[in-house]
Specification:
It contains 12 helices and 11 strands. The chain is α/β, with parallel strands linked by helices. Helix 4 (about 90-100) links the parallel strand 4 (about 85) and strand 5 (about 105). Helix 7 crosses helix 8 (about 210-215) and helix 7 (about 185-195) packs across helix 12 (about 315-330).
């Protein structure tokens, strides 16, 4: 595709935190290589702060699902006279929004069949699939991303709970799905091991993570609970105080990567082949590769279908501690 002729484009990725963060290398690389292009972005209101300060974007448009608002949004977008729409969501909603527009559109190949084959039949046609940011960029053909990783811009300062003479490790124990969460008790055990090594622990999460963050912080001496009401800009400002982040396969893992903070990640019911890896950032991934039941899902489940949950429970705190030490000193 010849981007030299384009003046204005719209990128659509409605949700979620991690998926939107993974679009930022594409946004930046387009703008830096083709500065004449104005880039607008459409996303849900819940995630607007992820991009609200992104200097490479012209306008943010907010998706609201009510029928009358959807019609207004479609009309508003149609009036922008885009040269191209890049639909990275590629679902019924995004298609409905753009269905009445004659503007050229390109859509992200989600490889749904390959995901189904891997989850249900363990036929792996995703072994050589690149990370999601590269797959996003491939909608433009032979388009090459830069090597600068993810972006997340914030103007907020870290909380005053951090002490300048202390070293901090961040924990992000939450997830929208149970099978993507390392054991709460294991996080407590790891935290107490790190306390003995003169680290302090900071807990991060959003609204849905407040309970687990409070339960873990209460059992680790001196730990600070910085979970909040989904204020991602404050969260990443706080994360910058940490030497490393220990997390599940979640949106906050990608947020830490955007700040170039080393990450130790647990993969349970999901696998690396789906493409949601820590992108262009120092990392260690822990997963149980001995199980024939992995992956049991491509997004996560509320329970272990086999009842044993070995994908997470077999990754013990001692292993995590040793791998984290290697990450911190490599």
């Amino acid at each position: 595709m010849n981007l030299n002729k384009l003046k204005k484009i719209l990128i659509i990725r409605l949700s979620s935190l991690g998926d939107i963060l993974l679009t930022t290398p594409l946004i930046r690389t387009i703008k830096e290589n083709y500065p004449q292009i104005e880039i607008d972005f459409l996303l849900k209101d819940l995630f607007k702060d992820v991009l609200i300060q992104n200097p490479y974007l012209n306008n943010l448009f907010i998706y609201i699902s009510e029928k009358h608002e959807l019609t207004k949004l479609a009309d508003k977008l149609k009036a922008q006279n885009y040269d191209l729409i890049i639909d990275l969501q590629n679902n019924l909603r995004s298609k409905k929004i753009t269905s009445h527009s004659k503007i050229p559109k390109i859509r992200f190949d989600k490889r749904d069949l390959d995901k189904l084959l891997l989850v249900h039949f363990k036929i792996n046609r995703l072994k050589s699939a690149p990370p999601i940011p590269v797959r996003y960029a491939s909608v433009l053909g032979e388009f090459q991303l830069d090597d600068k990783g993810l972006d997340l811009f914030t103007n907020k300062s870290a909380a005053n709970l951090f002490k300048e003479d202390k070293k901090y490790i961040g924990f992000c124990p939450g997830s929208r799905h149970f099978t993507k969460m390392w054991s709460k008790e294991y996080y407590v055990d790891l935290g107490n091991q790190l306390i003995k090594e003169n680290y302090n622990i900071a807990l991060f999460g959003g609204k849905e993570d407040k309970v687990i963050c409070e339960e873990i912080s209460a059992k680790i001496p001196g730990a600070i609970n910085l979970s909040n009401d989904d204020d991602i800009l404050q969260t990443v400002a706080n994360m910058k105080k940490c030497d490393a982040i220990v997390c599940n396969d979640s949106g906050l893992m990608h947020a830490a990567c955007a700040e170039k903070i080393p990450v130790l990640i647990f993969f349970g019911s999901t696998v690396k082949e789906f493409g949601f890896l820590p992108y262009q950032n120092k990392n260690v991934i822990l997963e149980n590769n001995s199980l024939s039941c992995r992956p049991c899902t491509h997004i996560g489940k509320s329970y272990c279908p086999k009842g044993h949950f070995k994908c997470m429970l077999d990754i013990d705190p001692k292993t995590a501690f040793n791998k984290l030490n290697l990450l911190l000193h490599s």
